[in-house]
Design goal:
5 domains, 23% strand, alpha+beta, Rossmann fold, Topoisomerase I, domain 3
Length: 677
């Protein structure tokens, strides 16, 4: 008997959804994309530029068997339901399945659900539709753009620099990092001083003289002011103001990644991987169900059903006073509002009630998402803010404090809140208060902070660069290409990162910039809405882009190759010094035909005695050129370190010490110390 065939893109979903639908349905997975652009045609684009950018698709390597199995199942199916992810990428996968499997409008339907729960899935099958070709066109345009820009600029950078790749989004993100670093290097620190009055239960800082802004530039000025002050202060003004502190809306992809980084220490890739598992389904006691809604979204909208159930939960657990309101923001032009925000699928499924079924990291992220969504529908917190102005010989000092008079959403979602409590100054009948001490302190202005991953994602989101689905991969690309190093969790551009950015700005400043990239995202949105024709957008771009690429190939000098004076032992070509992610290495000039990389000899780089055998710890390179330190008796002894070991032993446990950055660290315990050189 034929069954209805449902095709999803993820194997993790298939069994769960099949249970929901029952015996009349068979659920299979495409295992992601089944086709991609070929590498044929002009420049290997896989696109016929002369024929309206017509794409040439081919099965992804290893997918022919999967396609054959799906075709076989389609022949035996009564009806086919394409149930891939509810975004442009998912819509494109559905279209590729439709086209490859030979479906027609009579024997298929498109099914979309934003959470993998029984009710949501069953409801989705009651509201089927056909593939939205506008969404497919938008994704297809993005893919072709990325292919054209990536292939042409990467080839250019490989010929002219030590870089490996360039791209529409990655290169703009790298420029942000490079520009920030140059801003830091150009920064000139300035001295300034602060003066504080220290009282029994609070401090007040000098900010005005004769009610005019006061800046203290040096120690001489600070001492002069101190000489004019007494320890008696007059209470000039006390103001109290009640304020409401609003909860933030439920998470979108970027804000989830930012908070997961800041609060949990997760990078974007890890956050999205865990969120994917929570979305696709976790096995609980009696069921497998998705715990959160779809995690790639830039909308803060919440469903009416979720709002209603959450209001009931809040009222039942915290009381009527804690029931809040739906947070609304002005919709940005580049926001796709078809999705909901990231929220729990069931507000009654509290983090602690299912903790036993989750890994520690899954629990942490689920709790973060749950608490944020719950708090977004709770009432405002209320505070009483107090500001007091004190006068001392015409010098005005200010102290501020805050009291939380009603916790509201803060009951479930703690945020940093200044809760400094000031005394009741109204009780001072004399209006005079005596300080215990008056102090001065030297400071220096600080340069702008480097981007953390969270801050860079926030910047990209605010500038309209990329999409929720691309942030994590962009971060990875910058790191994997060796364009940035991560130092103290901050992005620091490498020499290659500077080089790539400078070359691109020399020739493509009009294209590789924030404004152009953001405008291109807007064009992609308009294609998705049916307001722009996809191939016309591509044509306009290409007509401007390609002449600039050709000019750049002629204009930019070839990168200098430093020969070592040695010949390759495998093919006889000269050996040259190359730069990679992990520094310089010696390799064959005939790459990629010859992939020889010279390894350092054991004799010339012995560092310390191996602690686990009679061998020596020597510097080695991985297949990708990364330096590490391992025993020369490998594979018999597998002792190895990523950081350079030294001859000194740990004073606490007598283990090997290594140099990591500006510190000496033990490989076995928590001992560390700053380098003294």
């Amino acid at each position: 008997m034929s069954k209805n065939l449902v095709i999803v893109e993820s194997p993790a979903k298939s069994k769960t959804i099949e249970k929901y639908l029952g015996s009349d349905y068979k659920v299979l997975s495409s295992k992601g994309h089944i086709r991609d652009l070929a590498t044929s045609g002009k420049y290997g684009f896989g696109v016929d530029i002369e024929d309206g950018f017509k794409p040439n698709y081919e099965p992804i390597k290893g997918k022919k068997k999967d396609i054959a199995e799906l075709k076989k199942e389609v022949k035996n199916a009564e009806k086919v339901y394409l149930a891939t992810d509810p975004d442009r990428e998912g819509e494109a996968i559905s279209w590729h399945l439709y086209d490859t499997l030979g479906l027609n409008d009579d024997n298929y339907d498109r099914v979309v659900f934003h959470e993998i729960t029984k009710n949501a899935v069953l409801e989705a099958f009651k509201n089927v539709r056909k593939i939205d070709k506008n969404l497919v066109n938008s994704q297809e345009t993005r893919r072709i753009l990325d292919r054209i820009i990536g292939f042409r600029l990467s080839k250019l950078m490989q010929a002219k620099t030590d870089g490996k790749s360039a791209g529409r989004v990655q290169s703009v993100a790298l420029k942000l990092v490079v520009d920030k670093e140059r801003e830091i290097k150009a920064f000139v620190s300035e001295e300034y001083w602060t003066i504080k009055g220290i009282f029994n239960d609070f401090e007040a800082e000098l900010f005005n003289y004769n009610h005019e802004t006061l800046e203290i530039k040096n120690e001489v000025s600070a001492k002069e002011i101190l000489s004019k002050l007494s320890k008696s202060f007059t209470i000039e003004d006390v103001s109290k103001k009640s304020k409401n502190k609003k909860a933030k809306p439920a998470y979108i992809t970027s804000t989830m990644q930012q908070d997961a980084s800041n609060k949990l220490g997760f990078n974007a890739k890890k956050t999205m991987s865990i969120a994917q598992k929570l979305y696709e389904g976790i096995e609980l006691e009696n069921e497998t169900t998705g715990l959160i809604t779809y995690m790639r979204t830039d909308s803060i909208r919440l469903s009416d059903e979720f709002i209603k159930s959450t209001y009931g939960f809040i009222k039942g657990h915290f009381g009527e006073d804690y029931v809040g309101y739906v947070k609304k923001t002005t919709k940005k032009d580049n926001v796709q509002d078809a999705h909901e925000a990231i929220r729990p699928t069931n507000i009654n499924r509290t983090p602690d009630s299912i903790k036993m079924y989750l890994t520690n990291d899954e629990y942490k992220l689920y709790k973060l998402i749950y608490d944020r969504a719950l708090a977004s529908l709770m009432s405002d917190a209320k505070t009483l803010n107090t500001t007091v102005i004190l006068d001392n010989n015409n010098y005005q000092f200010k102290a501020t404090g805050q009291i939380i008079t009603f916790d509201g959403y803060l009951k479930v979602y703690n945020e940093d809140t200044n809760n400094t409590i000031l005394p009741e100054f109204d009780t001072y009948k004399s209006k005079v208060i005596v300080a215990k001490d008056i102090t001065s302190e030297q400071h220096f202005t600080k340069p702008p902070a480097r981007y953390t991953e969270a801050k860079l994602i926030k910047e990209m989101e605010e500038l309209g660069i990329g999409r929720p689905s691309t942030y994590a991969t962009t971060m990875d690309t910058l790191k994997n290409r060796g364009y940035v190093n991560i130092i103290d969790k901050k992005f620091v551009p490498t020499e290659i990162g500077f080089q790539i950015t400078d070359k691109l700005q020399e020739c493509f400043s009009n294209l590789i910039n924030v404004e152009y990239t953001a405008n291109m995202e807007t064009d992609l949105d308009k294609i998705a809405e049916g307001k722009k024709v996809w191939y016309k957008v591509l044509q306009k771009f290409y007509d401007e882009f390609e002449p600039q690429v050709r000019e750049a190939f002629d204009k930019l000098p070839k990168k200098e190759v430093v020969k070592t004076g040695e010949d390759c032992p495998e093919c006889g070509s000269p050996l040259v010094i190359r730069k990679g992610r992990y520094g310089e290495f010696i390799a064959c000039s005939n790459y990629p035909k010859c992939k020889y990389i010279k390894q350092e000899t054991k004799e010339e780089n012995e560092i310390i005695d191996c602690p686990n055998c009679s061998g020596k710890i020597v510097m080695k390179r991985s297949k990708r050129g990364k330096v590490f330190y391992g025993c020369n008796n490998y594979p018999e002894c597998k002792t190895a370190y990523w950081d350079k070991p030294i001859s000194d032993k740990c004073p606490k446990c007598n283990s090997v010490l290594t140099i990591k950055g500006k510190k000496i660290k033990c490989t076995n315990c928590d001992y560390e110390k700053e380098l003294d050189w």
